[in-house]
Amino acid sequence: SLVVLFGATAGAYGAKLGSDERELILLVWQVVDLHSKKVGTLHKSLVKADNLDLSDQCREVSGLTPEGLGKAEPLDRVLQQFSQLVSSDLKVLGRSSYTLCSDGQLLIRQVLHPETSKKNFLLSDCFYSFYDLRKEFHTCYPSSAAVKDQTIKTMAEYLGLGTDEAEEDFGVWQVKTMVAIIFSMLSEGCNHIFTEPETVKYKYETGPCLLCLLFFFLCSSKSETVDSETVIRARGLPWQSSDQDIARFFKGLNIAKGGVALCLNSQGRRNGEALVRFVNSEQRDLALERHKHHMGSRYIEVYKATGEEFLKIAGGTSNEVAQFLSKENQVIIRMRGLPFTATQEDVLGFLGPECPVTGGKEGLLFVKYPDGRPTGDAFVLFSCEEYAQNALKKHKEILGKRYIELFRSTAAEVQQVVLNRYMSTPLIPTLPTPIIPVIPPPYTIATGSIRDCVRLRGLPYTAGIDDILEFMGDATGDIKPHGVHMVLNQQGRPSGDAFIQMKSADKAFMVAQKCHKKMMKDRYVEVFQCSGEEMNFVLMGGTLNRSGLSPPPCKLPCLSPPAYAAFQTAAVIPAEAAALYQPQALLPSTRTPQASAAAPPTVTYYPAQAAQLYMNYTAYYPSPPVSPTTVGYIAAPPGAVAAAATATHTPILPQPGALVRMQGLPYNTGMKEILSFFQGYQYAPDDYNGLIQLSDQARSVLQAPKEWVCL
Fold first, then answer.
1. Which long-range contacts (CB under 8 A, 24 or more apart) does 675-678 make?
2. Which residues neighbour 700 within 8 Å (Cβ) at sequence distance 6 or greater?
3. So what's the pLDDT on residue 83?
4. Measured by CB atoms within 10 angstroms of the end CB, which terminus of the chain is less buried, N or C?
């Protein structure tokens, strides 16, 4: 038997049914016995929605009013009545089982399942299997219109059935016409058989994506791909949302096994985006209709994505990960902030007997860097939700001397985190030795009120120097040497701003006129003319916006050092930055007092390929006002050092061994805090005098740290 079902919401109708998140307000149904070709009683039931504000289209098409709906039963009561009345009609017809039949997929997938999920009650099993009358009709009549173009009216017209909707109430005509279409398909000329119903998955299947595992083993050939017509990107997710939360957002649609991949940032934290792979393109298209639907109080943006993007996020795995994820139907918890010395026994002891780990030690996966060092992250498997909930109650409890964070996780996140750590490169890559050493001439940061600079605002965060030069086009030749300054935020990441020093104010004006709101990648970039003084203020931590110019903290009267005029002279490369770039292979042994006088100092060189670039760039946060730089700090031959020392005033850096590198500093640490940290140890400001070109005023900053505060 079939139960022919029709419904309507308080919003859009037809092809857009369910796309606006409006609630169900009408259900009409009738039982059809396919063998005897008899029908049961036709039932029509209004549904009381939480929001009775009807759209104009709904009022016009259905003829329903808020007053009439206000007297109806809520959805859960209506669905109970539906089950009872269907059972009664089946008994009258001598039948016991049935399958739903609806006009298309929208009522079941886009209305009933999402709404009941949000209202936290379960649909009966009959709503997880149904026949799509449009597909069945096209199978029976291949010459009819395409499935996506079918409607009840077009199917009736194709069969020559009456199509006067005005004769019946809204919903009643639709069900009666659908029953007539079904009887036509059962006639002797067609003898259509309903054999393959549509199915809705009861729950999302976790575990590693099989295509991703295959991709890992065959990645060298790059022959395996994921169909781009099945992948979407969801954006704006709450940071704590799991794969099950995302699957619930797409309730009613069939997600492929392991098809939810949470996107992580460079620190391994979720960034509010996820890639989701569905079983076919039809399901993906329905998912796109949920653009700006809500998850809690947040609306979620849904866009198309590619299979390549999905594989980049979910395709990373290893034998260890595959073995860890091979235990299906497990709840995964992520632990973050573990002591680097923590062992499996420590973690099991931390979790305790109230939340036993599946398989004991086999249910733990520590995340490590390529060199084997622990990252402080681990994943844990639990066999049931109760054990996982007990583990989550230990969020921010202490293990050793550190508090541990616990979060719900997913199989895709396990794969992505392990892949990111495994493929992570050293913090300081080794720079190639230049073929021809090039000693850069001293350069200055522009000052004054002459508007010979331009500011680029709204750059893509992935944009590099090459992208900026390409964006500038022919105007690249008018950039001053070392005139490109990328502005980074306090975390050392691109802020989306850059400053460029042009050769003249006229050149800056022409660039601002020509390039303003020109596209770079997928974003337009604003270009404004500005002065060197304004550029300096921003590079030193100030702000420049429509409200005016706000000076950086170091320019405020109560915080300024004895003088900041050192930066008006030739800019120098900080010795601290030089220490960052010393390739380990080129570091000599620590100098001894006897060898100190004879050992030649190290000279800073540009890599040969950088000699042609008009830029000043690096991935590290710049010390104001000097912007990042592409210069490589490579040890030079002794002869070149002597020649350089006599031929130019290029700054000479101290011998390695006199410098130390500090990692893990708070982002707001200034010079005063660093010098206080080393209180009791003698630093050598006099030694800096012969190494870095400093004015007397700048030298006083080093020699009088108590007078200097940098925020």
1. 675/705, 676/705
2. 561, 562, 563, 707
3. 94
4. C
SS3 state at 703 = helix
Report the pLDDT value the prediction gives residue 396, as an integer from 0 to 100. 92
Q: Is-contact 100 2, C-beta < 8 A? A: yes
Q: Which residues of 65-94 are buried (b: 16+ CB within 10 A; e: fewer)?
A: eeeebeebeebeebbeebeebbeebbeebe
Rounded Cα distance between 406 and 396, Å, is: 7
3 state DSSP class of 679:
coil
**DSSP at 107:** I
**Nearest by Cα to 428 from 614, 633, 588, 574:** 633
pTM: 0.53
Torsion angle, alpha carbons of 254, 259, 264, 269, to 10? 70
Which domains are delineated in the chain?
2-199 (3.30.420.10), 210-215+225-315 (3.30.70.330), 320-423 (3.30.70.330), 453-540 (3.30.70.330)
- Taking only the tens place, the pLDDT of each residue in 649-666 is 444 445 555 677 777 788
Rounded distance between C-alpha atoms, residue 66 and residue 52, angstroms:
5
Of 586, 606, 565, residue with least CA distance to 694: 565
Cα radius of gyration (the chain): 34
Classify burial at 516, counting beta carbons within 10 Å of its beta carbon; exposed 0-12, middle 13-18, buried 19 or more.
Answer: middle
Note the pLDDT tens digit of each residue in 499-554.
898 899 999 999 999 999 999 988 899 999 988 888 877 776 666 665 555 555 44
Decide the pairing of beta strands 99-102 and 129-132.
Answer: parallel
Among the listed residues 104, 106, 100, the one whose alpha carbon sits nearest the alpha carbon of residue 79: 100
* Distance separating alpha carbons of residues 616 and 618, to the nearest angstrom: 7
Query: Which residues on neighbouring strands pair with residue 39, listed in sequence order?
Result: 32
Find the helix or strand (DSSP H, E) in which 391 lies: helix 385-392
Determine the Cα–Cα distance for residues 157 and 161; give it in Å rounded to an integer: 6
* Residue 235 CB-density burial (10 A; 0-12 exposed, 13-18 middle, 19+ buried): middle
Which one, of 180, 254, 172, lies nearest residue 7 by Cα? 172
Axis-axis angle for helices 307-314, 210-217 (nearest 10): 80
CA separation for the pair 632, 619 (Å, rounded): 12
Task: Please say whether the beta carbons of 176 and 43 come within 8 A.
Answer: no
Residues of the chain under the 70 pLDDT cut:
163, 165-167, 207-225, 266-268, 315-319, 370-371, 412, 416, 419-447, 490-492, 540-658, 668, 672, 679-711
